[in-house]
Amino acid sequence: MPIRPNFRFWGKIAVGNDDDCWNWRGSPNPSGYGTFNFDGQNHNAHRVAWILTNGSIPSSGTLVCHKCDNRLCCNPAHLFLGTYKDNREDSIRKGRRTEINGHNNPRFRIPYETVCYIRKLGNRDVKHAHIAELLNVSRSQVTKIINGQQRRTS
């Protein structure tokens, strides 16, 4: 692979065999990725490795993903371009993430009519656990809706 010289950058990486992860030796950022100031801006180190090896990244929405799932790895052979969807599907395929659908998804929005119904039942002293079971939502969510602490609606 044609690696462009940038001695300051490559000097911060534990370069090994083509099959090995080439880990960033500097401190990781809070997300666990190495960072490097390149062309006057901070970039994730694996993105800089991609640019130095393969040229520019096509668009701002394009990710540089890891085949090895090692955030510190900068081995260009372990990197590939993809979208957010590609990256999510890759992590699901590898068993690092599960898709949570419907009421079990923390971003699920309860319809406004359902919120009104929950409050109506709550005002009639129906047990929160019974309402939660009836509507397939968590008891804590029912309690928050009845107490006016949260109203997550669509």
Integer tally of domains? 2
**Count of separate DSSP helical elements:** 6
Q: What topology, given as strand order, has the largest sheet?
A: 1-2
- Supply the CATH architecture of the largest domain: Alpha-Beta Complex
Tell me the Rg in angstroms.
24 Å
The helix/strand class is alpha+beta
Share of helical residues: 25-40%
Low-pLDDT stretches? none
**CATH top level class name of the largest domain:** Alpha Beta
N- to C-terminal distance: 50 Å
Q: Which series of helices and strands comes N to C?
A: HEEEEHEEHHHH
Please count the beta strands (DSSP E, at least 2 residues each). Answer: 6
> Looking at the structure, what is the overall shape?
elongated
Largest sheet: 2 strands, antiparallel
CATH topology of the largest domain: Homing Intron 3 (I-Ppo) Encoded Endonuclease, Chain A
- The amount of beta strand, in percent, is 5-15%
Mean pLDDT: 86
